[in-house]
Amino acid sequence: MAKFISYNVNGIRAALKKDWMGWLKLENPDVICIQETKAHKDQLDIEEFEKAGYNTYWFSAEKKGYSSVAIFSKTKPDHIEYGCGIEKYDKEGRIIRADFGDFSVLSCYFPSGTSGDERQAFKMQFLADFHVYIEELRKTRPNLLISGDINICHTEIDIHNPKTNKDTSGFKPEERAWVAQFIESGYVDTFREFNQDPHHYSWWSYRAGARGNNKGWRIDYHFVTESLRDKLTNASILADAIHSDHCPISVEIDVTL
After folding, report:
1. Are 106 and 69 in contact (CB under 8 A)?
2. How many C-beta neighbours within 10 Å does residue 237 have?
3. CB 232 within 8 A of CB 253
4. Pairing state between β 187-189 and 143-149
5. pTM of this prediction?
């Protein structure tokens, strides 16, 4: 049995100042996938993570203080793949993969389209390209855990106010359709395997007391390939962890690392 956490920390250096390490030691995941580290490896004291028992792997954006993903693992992976092989995404530090035997875990940070039409178009192109990339990867790595911030709410129960936000980036019909098509092509939204209730979110705006009023969005996911569905034992949203505008999400899978 292995425990996996995904967490968009919105700046790991800021999160560390809020006792993120204390939280990590208590949760004690086998693997944690991190998004928006907003840091390069040489800007951090890596020894702190190593003392907690983790091997750390970082894939940072060319631009300092932007995007960037990481994977921390207690078991040393057989292989780390940095990026997806598409330059315009890789220079933004959006995907890193760790292989353990016939099982792989990816930490992914999908683009946001909230800054305007150009980035929305970039996001939609990323979604199309990501699906092609993951389908190709699945031919050689059939057991995948795809973790991270995909910046999309799939259904109306994944967002606090679906009617107001129906044309907002992150809940646009074409984005929601992409998630539906992705799932239909053989991927499992692990949280919804265990919980079909509304009002469970992973991100809240910093504005207007959104988190205190639970006016949030569920935009962070652990997807697994259909081959792993029967190995899922638990999935949850850890809303009590407050180091970011996101909270961590957890999944437990009967796999050996």
Report:
1. no
2. 18
3. yes
4. unpaired
5. 0.98
Catalytic residue among 30, 149, 158, 220: 149
CA distance 170 to 152: 4
To the query of whether residue 149 is one of the catalytic residues in this protein, the response is yes
One CATH from 3.90.1150.10, 3.30.1380.10, 3.30.70.1340, 3.60.10.10 for 2-253:
3.60.10.10
Hey, where are the domains in the chain?
Answer: 2-253
**Residue 181 pLDDT class (50, 70, 90 cuts):** very high
Residue 154 has what pLDDT? 98
Contact of 101 with 75, CB cutoff 8 Å: no
Measure CA of the first residue to CA of the last residue in the chain; give whole Å. 9
Summarize pLDDT for 3-22 with one digit per residue, the tens: 999 999 999 999 999 999 99
Instruction: Report pLDDT digits (tens) over 211-249.
Output: 999 999 999 999 999 999 999 999 999 999 999 999 999
Confidence category of residue 2, pLDDT binned at 50, 70, 90 = very high
CA angle 88, 144, 242 (to 5 degrees): 75
Structure tokens at 87: 């330059």
